[in-house]
Amino acid sequence: MTQDIFEGTEEQAAALKSCIESHRGEEGALMPVLHEAQNIYGYLPAEVQTVIAEGLGVPLAEVYGVATFYSHFSLKPKGKHKVSVCLGTACYVKGSDKILEAVEKELGVSCGECTPDRKFSIESCRCVGACGLAPVMIVDEEVYGKLTPKDVPDVLDKYMGD
Amino acid sequence: MTYEELEKTAAGKADLINVRRIVRDQAEKLAANTGYRKQVLVCGGTGCTSSHSRQVIEQLEKSFEELGIDDVLIVKTGCFGLCALGPIMIVYPEGAFYSQMTPEHAKTVAEKHLIKGGEIVKELLYADTVHADGLVIPFAEIPFYKHQMRIALRNCGVIAAESIEEAIAAGDYAALAKVLKEMTPDEVIAEIKAAGLRGRGGAGFPTGLKWQFTKQAEGDKKYVCCNADEGDPGAFMDRSVLEGDPHTVLEAMTIAGYCVGADEGYIYVRAEYPIAVERLNIAISQARKVGLLGKNILGSGFDFDIHVRLGAGAFVCGEETALMASIEGHRGEPRPRPPFSAQCGVFGKPTVLNNVETWASVAPIILKGSAWFASIGTEKSKGTKVFAVGGKIKNVGLVEVPMGTTLKTIIYDIGGGIPGGKQFKAAQTGGPSGGCIPAKYIDIGMDFDNLTSIGSMMGSGGLIVMDEDTCMVDIAKFYLEFTADESCGKCTPCRVGTKRMLEILTRITEGKGEPEDIEKIKEIAEHMKSSSLCALGQSAPNPIISTMTHFASEYEAHIYDKKCPAGVCKSLLSYYIEPRKCRGCTMCARTCPANAITGVVKSVHEIDPAKCIKCGQCLENCKFGAVVKK
Fold first, then answer.
1. The model's pTM
2. Do B312 and A88 touch (CB under 8 A)?
3. Record: contact B86-A132, CB cut-off 8 A
């Protein structure tokens, strides 16, 4: 695999700096800062972790340790559209594994991966709490419920264009 | 604005709330006092938002403008509980219960019902609320609600979720005012103890005792924490409380702060719950503005403030020591206890940690008294419990019932039974830490001790219903995949044990199981239970042990006969076309992705087992029921 090249903008750097400023000196600031940093950049590359470590006065090893512990934090860039299939129990007993298979088949990459054109990434998640709509998948912020594998191509089609 | 001023304006809104709580004929009289002819409550919880309730509200607003309706109030509430039928919309004073709303439906209801002189649009009502003779039944009287008793969820679906005025009008903060003005910390703790309130997060530890230990602990600084890291997949009651009535949690945490001598609190909430997080933040800033949080609360001289901390997708952070490590900004790994969090919690200080639903039960105890609360439920489990009922059941949703209510009542009377005429097989409670309740125990009263006695556990209250099509070995494997994935890796029994057990189970479901596997699993389970560091590892074997106990024959069928009786485990299945039923329509051959089906038009088709990938497409697409799974 090729190394992902980090490209941050000046606006992003400024946003991260002000986020670190606002949390400096606060107890337990690392988690909130990592959350905000991921919102700013979409992921947490080594370059961003280094800035956070220096800004908060925390060893880089610790920043890395925390960032890799939690599944919500990603060290790799995600696709433009994040497709997330719920594999919580309520969805699972209603066949969400088959929804995930259909998504993987449609996009041609496996769960946890990103399409070569960086348009889509697939992940599984553990219960978004929309169990009444099981099985569900989430594309970006939008929740699609009561799915069958046949519905998957239509849902993904909506995002193919842009 | 001060709290006193807010209280006055809120008092003026009490009738608004009463219209929503009082039965029909009285509600109609009361509605005249409110200045609103009707009120439309639309669910703004995650379930209904996911099925587009926002668009329903937008359409209502648009229609009101077009039709010149200005005396109908639109209220965005939290969860009504019947998530399967979302988006839900209730119109008061009639209590008309519209389900599965679309913007077009909303337009129709505005034009025909909400307009002056309009009438209920019966076709759009939830079918159970329309009597055979056409009369509309108030929704509180339908089976789903009739058997429920709402304490923790009392304001969910009743008040506007983002309005502190409505929260106060509905009674929030009255308990805090009473505690600060009339009660000593010891009196409050005694009341909570007498009520018999036990933690709703899973372990069922007596809440009053927890507060007492923290009060007695020495320390200049103490904390109060709320565990809103609802990680058990299929449980969503904590989220619903935070979305529907966030102030009750803030109020209860402040009360606990007063009791134990803490001045700061943290709410640790899942990042996967954006609506709950947003409402919490709104509620906190509202409470700060009127002096219900911050310095000198209600003029009592007591200071307390609350911060929100987001989780980041680690199930183990529901464990208290891991949760506290995460609040401190570290990896969410548990540590050995003692010291317990009452002595050494967040930042090494004495800490009270309770779950959201537990917090939501505190204010009613203070206001209505411990005797009232203790009169509900069973001998050792007092009060009510919220269950998130999901899986193979008609009425998926949130259900709050007195402790000791039977599983049968929950599944059949409230839940509406199993869809498709299928047989009930088992219910799973307690998620990845719990076990299953087989059909023979359907009359069991659901409380902490009963569930433990049959090898399951209450857990946080997720209740997944399974029918005859669910393979219990596959379900055990599903939970093991979860715990193996979520094991933090700090202690060996959990890290290695979950992995080894998962390997064995995977083998069994692939038809490679060996007779000695059952003993191996039992041995690993024993080691994990006795030597894992935290509850995640100690309870991870539960789903396997309980399915092995109650469904031994299914394990045997997988291991000895290489068959999956429920027809789920792919490797043990074969698809076959019954020649008598096949009409030769070619549909199966055309949909088969592996080209495993041969045959020509109008002749019997055949599946080549060597090529078949067991995807089930042929079975789904055969119109004549000729494809069978064995």
1. 0.94
2. no
3. yes
